[in-house]
Design brief:
It is a single chain. The protein has 16 helices and four strands. β1 and β2 form a beta hairpin. The longest helix is centred in the N-terminal third of the chain and has 31 residues. With 372 residues, the chain is an all-alpha fold. The strands form two sheets. The protein has a two-stranded antiparallel sheet with strand order 1-2. Strands 3-4 form a two-stranded parallel ribbon. It has one domain. The chain is globular. α4 packs across α10. The protein binds zinc ion. The site of zinc ion has 6 residues, from α7.
Length: 372
Amino acid sequence: MSSVIDNPPVLGRSAPSLISLVRPSDVDIRRGRRRLHLKAAGIVALVAVAYWGLVFSSAGWIGRIGFAGLLVVGVVAVGTGIFHDANHGAFSASRRANRVVAHSADVLGASSWVWRFKHNTLHHAHTNVVGRDSDIEQSPFARLAPQQPWRRWHRYQHLYMWVLYGILTLKWFIVSDVVALLKGGFGTDRFPRPPTPRDVAVGAGGKLVHLGWAVVIPLLFHPWWGVALFYLGASWLVGFTLAMMFQLAHCTDVVEFLSRSDAEHQESFEVHQLRTTAGIECRLPLLGGFVRWIMGGLDHQVEHHLAPRLPHTVYPAMATRLRVLCAERGLPYHEHRSVWRAVRAHGRWLELLGRDPSRITADLRLAPGRRP
Ligand SMILES: [Zn+2]
């Protein structure tokens, strides 16, 4: 599976080699990895302190809520700043180290083996291609791409999806991995090889470990209703935050959605990624710094989609050059001006795609390939 996952296929004709022009030097990449390792150590320390405070300390309710908030921040940062990089092979120069750290996904309850197929192969190689990118499939709950069928309840999706995002991620941890393993893949895409007994054992073991630290150990010290309240609340917040980071990059009215045949006619893999992906500017001095830290480079989604095997700490430097290069070549470089504007763009997209397509008026200015 690794060859497909680690080397997403180039779509279409010759690539403009943007990445060869903005790729940091080997020295800068090594520095970037060192910064990433320091950041990862800080994240692990944060999670440990937050977990200790939440489960073992004698803090009162207010204190425990504070520690739970810190734990949510830490777990999201593990997802964006450790397991995402590691599963892309970007955390370390050593393949073995990447695979070991990638198991942080299993500890959080998501099979790293399934994740690499779903995220690296289906999402990164077929971004926003309907029927291939499983990340834009939320059927029957939501219609996220114009090519997907409309249902009557979708007219309210701009209201209820915000709540469902947190729950859908929990469903993914509990149900979707198992269903994917039983079906042998996602949609019409099959795993390149059947999972080995070890892959299944690691995935199942990871879910047990997750259940152990998140539910069983807390139950030894606290009443069941308190554990249930904190677990469900924290899970929802982690799920919502992670879902938002994805949706703001790929499900707004500034990017494109492609059918399978559209995707085959894309000029190149790089142009495909530029058309289907948006970054987010975070300029506020203090809050912006925190947002960039917790997003782990996912505010630089464009750079991530062009160079997913580089540590996310090198993306800001790449972005400066890439913006100029895209402008010079007349290529799109989508970037929301702020997190709030990105959230509003996602809300607009949900509202637009929730409308009955038969009643859409002609004056709606939709980009090619987006007509509901
Ligand atoms: Zn990725």
